[in-house]
Amino acid sequence: MIPETTHYLTCKDYTVSDKDFDLLYHSSLDMLETFPQPKAEELSGYYESDDYISHTDSKKSGIDKLYQFVKKIALASKLELLNSFKTADKNLLDVGCGTGDFLLTCKNNGWKVTGVEPNAKAKIIAENKLAGEFASEIYSEIHHLKNDLQFDVITLWHVLEHVPNLDNYIATLKSRLKPEGILIVAVPNFKSYDANYYKQFWAAYDVPRHLWHFSKKSIRLLFEKYEMSVVKILPMWFDSFYVSLLSEKYKNGKGNFLKAFYISLISNIKAITTKEHSSLIYLLKNVKN
Description:
- By secondary structure, this protein is an alpha/beta fold.
- Helices cover 35% and strands 24% of the residues.
- It is built from nine helices and eleven strands.
- The protein has helices at residues 40-43, 62-83, 101-107, 120-129, 166-176, 193-198, 216-224, 239-252, 257-274; strands at residues 5-12, 20-26, 31-35, 91-95, 112-116, 137-139, 151-157, 177-188, 212-213, 228-235, 279-286.
- Helix 2 (62-83) runs parallel beside helix 3 (101-107) and helix 8 crosses helix 9 (257-274).
- The chain starts with a strand and ends with a strand.
């Protein structure tokens, strides 16, 4: 993005390649960048793993089962958040919809849903879940949407960190949002206690699939360029535990349930005062001129 960077950490890809990647700190944005970033044609290969659970619906391991359990709770919470908005038509675009559970939940509760999912296997699973008399459309890229389509709510649940052309993507999101619409962006927070505790083993760095690593300041500055402002920030309480459990596995070769619970508990307690939770949900709106 910009040349003024300093080395922050070196992390390993524990999911696919076992390769090392550097995290570079952009002081002006208070943000980290993964370096080197895979070329566009190489990036999809880093998602080809049974361990990448958001694309598979796997329930094989204990960590998989925990993920699915937490996901059920999170789906109810996300739906409650959406239903709190006063929207004209209840039109939702979920970018990076994975296997479609969030879209299905919203559709079953009166929302008109559209999804974007670049992973072919996950896209097929999502399409099958949403098939029926009023089948919903799932696109492989946001640029494939019909030109005139705009939405009351656009959601990116742990997606923005995966996007190669960050500035262009934010501009595209803005163009797809109705003037009074709400953009929801959930991302890991590298300023959290669990990130600082686990350092290079922190699972939410997830290099090189996560190309960017955000702070509250970076989100504010990135979207300000496109005349959007953060109107509210919400915590994702459960993320610290799931991330800590994976981080224990990366650090020590196995998941330590009790240690992960302890670290995640401390992280959440500290975040009550610091507001630096393991993951944060940003609600953004267009700035009124």
